């Protein structure tokens, strides 16, 4: 991934972050799996989807950029050349919402329906 693409991903996260910060993972058993996070998600800031999480990649709709990811325990990890460069803990994942938390804050997303 080029530096400009990393900036695009960082800008995407900046647009969908809130100022609230949650505590780090307490060491409990993971509550979520990859099936829980797969789907099309929207930040709600526009009428369009923000990104789609597939089996092994994430498509950022606004930049039409695919990014590999791994899901370990309850953590979503963006990968480039098998090297992690962004991590977010899944706080909530259900039929219609996804909440991610990292050092930058909390992102709340809603399942996108056409």
Detailed description of the structure:
The protein is mostly beta strands and 114 residues long. It has two helices and eight strands. An eight-stranded antiparallel β-barrel has the order 1-2-3-4-5-6-7-8. The termini are far apart. The relative contact order is 0.23.
SSE order and pairing:
Layout: H1 3-15, H2 34-37, E1 39-42, E2 51-53, E3 57-60, E4 65-72, E5 75-80, E6 83-93, E7 97-102, E8 105-111
Antiparallel strand pairs: 1-2, 1-8, 2-3, 3-4, 4-5, 5-6, 6-7, 7-8
Briefly, what is this?
Helix content is 15%, strand content 43%. It has 114 residues and is mainly beta.
Biggest sheet descriptor: 8 strands, antiparallel, barrel
**Overall form:** globular
* Strand element count: 8
Q: Uncertain segments of ≥5 residues (pLDDT<50)?
A: 1-6, 14-26
Number of helices: 2
Reading the helices and strands in chain order gives: HHEEEEEEEE
Provide tags for this entry.
mainly beta; 114 residues; disordered N terminus; single chain; 8-stranded antiparallel barrel
